[in-house]
Amino acid sequence: MTPATPTPDTPRQPGAADRQGPARPLGPRRRLVLLTRLLLWLGPRPPADGGSTTARDLAVRHRLLLALSALLTLSLFLSYEGVHGDADPLRTSSAPAVLSLDTALYALGQAQQDAGAATPTSDFQKQISVAAQSLAAAAGDGVGGPAGRQALQTVAGLITVYAVKVQQAQLQSADSVLREAYLSYATSVLTDPGSGIQARLTALRAQQRDAVRRQTSFGPLLWCGWTVTLLLAAALAAALLEAQLFLRRRLRRRYNRGILAAGTLLVAGTGTALLFTVWTHRGMAHTRALLDRPLTGQLITDAGRHTASYLAQTGFRASAAGWILIGGIVLMALAETGLRRHIDDYRFRPR
């Protein structure tokens, strides 16, 4: 046997892959389809015999829309409540309490200026009455909880002691030693750094301002919640659009009323919730900036008017949280309605 002589390599004929030019970039519709298929598991494999996959594709999109709708509803509700849940307490309790404490401190400062008068004056009595009424208003606003109310009761008692000592001093002669003793005691009750009226009220005011800062803060948790919410809204919008394009391409359905209505509700509902949140947070931020410094005189009245303006309609917007849950149910119902008839048609279609 003679050894086989090597033959020159036969040139390889160019195949279809070699004849193709550079790959064309994916179009917007194809990108949308690929993005939607990456969002969730796409169910069972297509039939091995090459049969129609329409029933499977419809079921996949049906599950995808319902899952995204449920997740978006939950995320939007929690994120919305995280902002608006503190808006109404800020308007009805925390902000008025800060202003009441500022009013009491200012009135007591004015009373101290009138305490050295030779005779009792109506201005002194008026300032003491204003301070007492402001403390009652602060207690009604729930300053500091039970401990805060107890502190306010103590301060109210000290104000009574202070007023009595000043009045006793004013009944004495101008050069009386007893007069000086009464005034000295009254001044210590008011201004003692550790246990005086002003020190106690200042501490309560600082606590209340801390509460205002907590209620008006937009921390990392809220940022994360709203980021997830917006991403879910974008994903659901993409899935609804892809489902409409799928029905138009595969089933020759130009428009699907359920899918289009769901998309309209998604855009309108999410946009409204986002707009309400921006308005509420902006009003809360303005309120925080306004109350974050000591106020006196006419500034207190102006701050009360501005705060009421900043926080107007927050109660109404906070009550809209319940409509988010209702809207989520309607959204899922529309997605169900839009695809259920086609799913049933292919489920019972004879093979």
Offer a quick outline of the entry:
The chain is built from 13 helices and no strands.
Report Rg.
Answer: 36 Å
SSE string, helix = H, strand = E? HHHHHHHHHHHHH
User: Whole-Å distance between the termini?
Assistant: 62 Å
Largest sheet: none
Query: Unreliable runs, pLDDT <50, ≥5 residues?
Result: 1-21, 39-51
User: Strand-residue fraction?
Assistant: under 5%
Helix amount: over 70%
Overall pLDDT metric? 80
| β-strand number | 0
Question: What is the count of helical runs?
Answer: 13
Shape: rod-shaped
Structural class: mainly alpha
Please give a structural write-up:
By secondary structure, this protein is mostly helical. It has helices at 16-19, 28-39, 54-84, 87-114, 122-140, 145-170, 177-191, 197-216, 220-250, 257-291, 298-310, 314-319, 321-347. Helix 4 runs parallel beside helix 10 and helix 8 packs antiparallel against helix 10 (257-291). The two termini are 62 Å apart. Residues 1-21 and 39-51 have low confidence and may be disordered.
From the structure above, extract its key features.
351 residues, mainly alpha
